[in-house]
Amino acid sequence: MLEYPGSEPGFASPLALAAGVEWIRLPLSFPPRHVNVYRIETSGGTILVDTGLGNRETRELWDSLWSRAPCSKVVVTHFHPDHIGQAAALEGLGAKILVPAPEIAKARQIHALGADELTLHMSRFFIAHGLSGSAPGFGRGNGYRYMVPVLPERSLALLKGALDFAPEWSVRFAGGHSPAHALLTRDQAPIVVAGDILLPRITPNISVWPEDPDADPLGDYLRALDGLRRDLPTDGLILPAHGSPYRGIHERIAAIQAHHAARLDLLREAIGTAGSVSAAEMLLRLFPHELDPGSLPFALGETVAHLNHLWRRGEIERPRDRHGVYRYMR
């Protein structure tokens, strides 16, 4: 079983986890209703890892938190709104922003999309996988810009390896959930700031998106997990972006790998029985609960990710039918 040290903080109430490490929980307007960020004392000054949503509520919390304990640098693990949302505001307060280059590039790409262009991309993706191009949730505009109104102007590229200003901390990247999600690790009194990669109770969304329909993000993620299991110590304290910090990284990695293996087996069985399937037909097999409009694109993207993984492994084929819908078959 995973070990959960200590209690949980209230929103914007820093809680010491270890020497020089504070856990700060910020609110979200959508599940899981919170995001964790971490303030860390390093040999090169105080850094903050991730920032919360770019909304007024979170900005007001940072106005108070920052006045009491400012940070010289902010490390953004990846481009998702609950991680990069306040980066521009904190840059305005004097912090240097460090982001993996592929992550800030993806943020700028999505931020620049107009509402009509975004709707067109998503509708074509839905149609190609067997769903209606007018599914609920379309026509709402660019939701990313709503949650991240402004991106940082002068972010620095976060590079793999030891931080030049704090060499006791190292950076590594994991694909799958995003292009190059950053994790921070410390060997002495081992800590892993894991972002969304190693959540204690849920798994991160692993999706194929319209701009790269042939991608295999699940393969990227599973390879990243193999590397983490090989390289990281068993007794490290894991600091996730959602849920509570915990110990038991190898056990958690094994559970996540088993989760995805079970989903792949379910799809193999369904394809073997039906002969061919679309992602739409498999959607409710992987997500049997009712899906709201906001979660439907993520559920479809993750279904396609599992099917694409089997296809990219050479286990199945992926022709289009006469309607232009991808069919996955042996």
Number of domains: 1
Strand content: 15-25%
Q: Which runs of at least 5 residues are low in confidence (pLDDT < 50)?
A: none
Termini, distance in Å?
38 Å
- Tally of extended strands? 15
Order of helices and strands: EEEEHEHHEHHHEEEEEHEEHEHHE
Query: What is the radius of gyration computed over CA atoms, rounded to a whole number of angstroms?
Result: 20 Å
Topology:
Blueprint: E1 15-18, E2 21-27, E3 34-42, E4 45-49, H1 56-68, E5 73-75, H2 81-84, H3 87-92, E6 96-99, H4 101-111, H5 115-128, H6 143-147, E7 156-157, E8 161-163, E9 166-174, E10 181-186, E11 191-195, H7 217-231, E12 237-240, E13 246-247, H8 249-274, E14 276-277, H9 279-286, H10 296-312, E15 328-329
Parallel strand pairs: 4-5, 5-6, 6-7, 11-12
Antiparallel strand pairs: 1-2, 2-3, 3-4, 8-9, 9-10, 10-11, 12-13, 14-15
Helix pairs in contact: 7-8, 9-10
Characterise this structure.
The chain is of the alpha/beta class and 330 residues long. The protein has a single domain (15-248), classed as Ribonuclease Z/Hydroxyacylglutathione hydrolase-like (Metallo-beta-lactamase, Chain A, 4-Layer Sandwich), CATH 3.60.15.10. The chain contains 10 helices and 15 strands. Helix 7 (217-231) packs antiparallel against helix 8 (249-274) and helix 9 (279-286) packs across helix 10 (296-312). The radius of gyration is 20 Å and the shape is globular.
Short description:
With 330 residues, the chain is of the alpha/beta class.
